Amino acid sequence: MKLQLTEGRVGPLLLKLTLPMVWGVFAVIGFNIVDTYFVGQLGTNELAAMSFTFPVVMVLGSVSMGLGTGASSIIARAIGEGDRHKVKRLTTDSLTLSLLIVGIFVILGLTTIDPIFTALGAKAEIIPLIREYMQTWYLGVIFLVVPMVGNNAIRAAGNTLIPSVIMIIAGVVNAVLDPILIFGVGKIPAMGLQGAALATVIGRATTLIASLLFLHYRERMISWSLPSFNLLLRNWQSILYIGIPAAATNMITPISITFITSLVANYGIATVAGFGIASKVESFSIIVPIALSASFSPFVGQNWGAKKYNRVYLGLRLGFQFCLLWGVLLAIALGVGGSLIASIFDPNPEVIEIAAKYLLIVPISYGTSGIILISSATFNALGKPLPSVVMTMTRMLFLYVPLAYLGSWLFGVNGIFVAACFANLAVGIGAYIWNQKTCSLKMTAQQQRVENIPEVVTPFHGSQK
User: Measured by CB atoms within 10 angstroms of the end CB, which terminus of the chain is less buried, N or C?
Assistant: First the structure.
């Protein structure tokens, strides 16, 4: 455990942090695509059953990401402060908190499978398939939540390579086991949906083992001593203070997209298909900004804890400039090649037209979308979760959803796409101003403290500060 991020040139340092994260994020997205591909070969009912599980999976994924964000924030700042004992205590208490929350979710989940998914609209014939998948998946929730917290603790120490390698290994294990466990090979029976869930659990289990071993033997960030009950509660409170808003923020976007999809569905199946293709292209297009924003959490946390505010300010400026440049390049590439890209997924001219329209309009705002991601990560790293919640709620609930309904009424499906673009642009500009103001105020306050140190006059050396 070293102060790896408080020295050296900021640009190359952020590049070094981001490159491994790109592959890690790619592995996470690929994990879900592989599952969907193999389950789709089982039949429509099985694919529908798995689709019904996405909201629950999304909620637990958001909870784990929130806990990981809270842990990363407080651990990185403790590393910046140079308090090794505090770092070990916070890391360990983050892991125990995740275990407690996992236990609660597993008990609640296993006892409410039928009523929850019936409420979500699953038909009677689909419920047994959902139960088959979720009973195995719930038992493996520990392998989802705990590694997420552990990997974020490793990133807080300035190491983004190992968490990315761990995620890639999990993705490979899942991809190899999916066809074996779903369809059966040799003496291994075909398990269908249960096999898909088991492949996911085993893949995630590798991340649990790897992250805990690395934290203990390499980074020495786990403490085996028991804390006082009051200290444990204080640490849990610090994690949840950031983790709960971060989890809520993560859930707002997919929930809002559900409403947008229902609105797009009014224009027919081809429009939904085109929207879906464009959304998948978008998810791959913003992998780099997502990876960059994930790198900002440990960078900002360590430097803020070490009171090196100028490095944070410089890092943000470089990050924002990169996002704008990346956004311009993507807007040009997708605007020119949108039709060609869409045709790879579906040859239907109507589908291609819708996807191409989306990829012509929305990517104009990808630069500011990256600024929002970096700003949110920065505020969470500073222990200020409220701005991130405000930005996400404003973008999705107060701008995108209502403007999409208005745009749909006035201009058809193009109005929905313009609403997405406008929401990203407006909130991105606001996020930039808010973030810069926060850092500038801190730097100004630090400078004033330096200037107000009283002069000491000595007979031999003159006045000194």
Answer: C
pLDDT of residue 455: 44
Integer Cα distance of 460 and 56 in angstroms: 73
Contact 301, 379 (CB under 8 A): no
Residue 361, pLDDT above cutoff 90: yes
Strand partners, 457: 463
Is the same domain home to 101 and 35?
A: yes
- What is the residue-wise DSSP string for 23-53? HHHHHHHHHHHHHHHHHHTT-HHHHHHHHHH
Task: Judge if 299 and 429 occupy the same domain.
Answer: yes
Q: Does residue 325 register a pLDDT over 90? A: yes
Q: Residue 116: which domain range?
A: 1-227
Q: From residue 116, give the alpha-carbon distance in Å to each of 131, 252, 253, 273, 293.
A: 11, 20, 21, 28, 34
Q: How is residue 19 written in tokens?
A: 């490159």
Which residues make beta-bridge pairs with 188?
185
Residue 223, C-beta contacts closer than 8 angstroms, at least 6 positions apart: 85, 88, 89, 91, 92
Angle formed by the axes of helices 10-40 and 44-81, nearest 10°: 160
Tell me whether strands 462-464 and 456-458 are parallel, antiparallel or unpaired.
antiparallel
Q: Which two structure tokens, joined as six digits, stand for 384?
A: 């200020």
> What span, in angstroms and rounded, lies between the C-alpha atoms of 388 and 380?
7
* Residue 105 domain flag: yes
Q: Do 159 and 11 share a structural domain?
A: yes
27 with 128, same domain?
Answer: yes
Element containing residue 458 per DSSP (H, E): strand 456-458
Tell me, what's the pLDDT at 53? 77
CA distance 197 to 137: 5
> pTM, whole model, 2 decimals?
0.77
Residue 180's pLDDT is 93
Dihedral sign, Cα of residue 201, residue 205, residue 208, residue 211:
negative
Residues 271 and 335 in one domain: yes
Which residue type, as a one-letter code, is found at position 444? T
Residue 100 neighbours by CB under 8 Å, 6+ apart: none
* CA 460/CA 117 separation, integer angstroms: 81
Q: Are 129 and 46 within 8 A, CB to CB?
A: yes
What's the CA gap between 93 and 438, in Å, rounded? 29
